[in-house]
């Protein structure tokens, strides 16, 4: 069985972070986002290959994962000639595949039991199975109505306020039968959400839902990107480094350097090669990326700092996301959840 990860979007809502780092590989703690999806998919013993459907900056993604040596499963990359939308991308990536297929949106973090979803698909003899998750406000998602038997009766992508009839949304995880893909037009942008799914309900195909009430988040906005880190710190979601046992203490890479006199306030995370100098304070809720230097007396909390950024002496960083290789001068004060792109330079004493 094969899985397709849809990882071709531009990540516009995460700009400027995604100008040089495509959304599927933005770091979540010490590893690129897609690594978490690959870890989840390796729990399905039948999956022998994961296909990454790419469009935006494909090279950067290939460079990170290669043929899958470090991921535990064989990887293949399919790059569309032009963005084909979610439906077009699935058809393009699924060429030559006849067997049942698993598809993930490349930006959802979840604890769903993928084996159970496949089981639901098979026992229903479904043409398509979709994972649903309840959310407080479905308007930014695909709203999905179901009947008493769990069959999908209506799919409305990005519903208007007067269409909010239920709280279950498309979680971006599907089991699909490729023999239906000839309904997807070739070579033009085509949305699986706006066209293919509604067509299944119109034709009366067996289109079933699997409602999952476990952890689920789409990391595609700065607020959600910060939230997923918070949730892992707090143990609401366990994966990767955060297995639950570590969260009440600072998580510090053995290859990081924390000088005497620096203060670590849990929860916080310090990655490989970072250097925290005396009298600096890290945490709570601080993520310090690879090779970051935090100078004497600086304070970093409620912030995510990507690799190789330097935080100057006595700077106070409270709330932002900082991209790679930024230079934050001494006594800079940053408050609030703003997003700064790679190589941002803030002059000494700047308040922002
Ligand atoms: N290869 C390829 N080509 N991938 C694409 C393309 C494309 O043209 N367009 C989007 N993608 C990928 C994105 O990278 C992302 O991983 C996924 O498809 C979904 O696109 P988003 O842009 O993130 O969509 P969304 O978040 O607004 O809505 C989707 O996800 C929601 C759940 O998070 C929809 O599937 C909604 O129905 C759903 O509720
Ligand atoms: Mg999304």
Descriptive report:
Helix content is 17%, strand content 29%. The protein is α/β, with parallel strands linked by helices and 352 residues long. The protein has two domains: 2-222, Spore Coat Polysaccharide Biosynthesis Protein SpsA, Chain A, CATH 3.90.550.10; 253-346, UDP N-Acetylglucosamine Acyltransferase, domain 1, CATH 2.160.10.10. The strands form seven sheets. A seven-stranded mixed beta sheet has the order 5-4-1-6-11-8-12, with helices on both faces. Helix 3 crosses helix 5. The longest helix is centred in the middle third of the chain and has 12 residues, at 192-203. The protein is elongated and about 65 Å long. The protein starts with a strand and ends in a 6-residue tail after the last strand. 43% of the residues are buried. The mean pLDDT is 95. The protein binds guanosine-5'-diphosphate-alpha-D-mannose and magnesium ion.
Task: State the fourth-level CATH superfamily of the largest domain.
Answer: Spore Coat Polysaccharide Biosynthesis Protein SpsA, Chain A
Computed over alpha carbons, the radius of gyration is: 22 Å
Terminal Cα span: 50 Å
CATH third-level topology of the largest domain: Spore Coat Polysaccharide Biosynthesis Protein SpsA, Chain A
């Amino acid at each position: 069985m094969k899985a397709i990860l849809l990882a071709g979007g531009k990540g516009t809502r995460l700009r400027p972070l995604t100008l040089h780092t495509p959304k599927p590989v933005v770091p979540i703690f010490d590893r690129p986002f897609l690594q978490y999806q690959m870890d989840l998919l390796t729990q399905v013993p039948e999956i022998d290959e994961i296909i990454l459907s790419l469009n935006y900056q494909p090279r950067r993604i290939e460079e990170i994962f290669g043929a899958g040596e470090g991921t535990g499963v064989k990887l293949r990359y399919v790059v569309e000639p032009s963005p084909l939308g979610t439906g077009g991308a699935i058809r393009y990536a699924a060429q030559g595949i006849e067997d049942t297929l698993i598809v993930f949106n490349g930006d959802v973090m979840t604890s769903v039991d993928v084996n159970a979803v496949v089981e639901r698909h098979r026992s229903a003899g479904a043409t398509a199975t979709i994972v649903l998750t309840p959310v407080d406000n479905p308007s930014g998602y695909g709203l999905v109505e179901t009947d008493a038997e769990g069959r999908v009766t209506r799919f409305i992508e990005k519903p208007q306020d007067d269409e909010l009839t239920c709280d279950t949304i498309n979680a971006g995880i599907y089991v699909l039968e490729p023999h239906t893909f000839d309904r997807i037009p070739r070579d033009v942008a085509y949305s699986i959400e706006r066209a293919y799914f509604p067509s299944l309900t119109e034709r009366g195909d067996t289109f079933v839902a699997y409602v999952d009430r476990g952890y689920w988040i789409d990391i595609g906005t700065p607020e959600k990107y910060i939230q997923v880190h918070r949730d892992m710190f707090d143990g609401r979601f366990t994966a990767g480094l955060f297995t639950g046992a570590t969260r009440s203490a600072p998580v510090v890479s053995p290859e990081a350097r924390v000088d005497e006199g620096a203060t670590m306030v849990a929860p916080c995370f310090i990655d490989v090669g970072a250097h925290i100098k005396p009298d600096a304070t890290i945490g709570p809720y601080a993520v310090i990326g690879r090779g970051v230097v935090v100078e004497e007396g600086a304070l970093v909390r409620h912030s995510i700092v990507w690799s190789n950024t330097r935080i100057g002496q006595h700077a106070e960083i409270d709330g932002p996301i900082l991209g790679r290789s930024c230079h934050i001068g001494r006594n800079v004060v940053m408050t609030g959840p703003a997003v700064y792109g790679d190589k941002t330079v803030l002059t000494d004493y700047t308040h922002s």
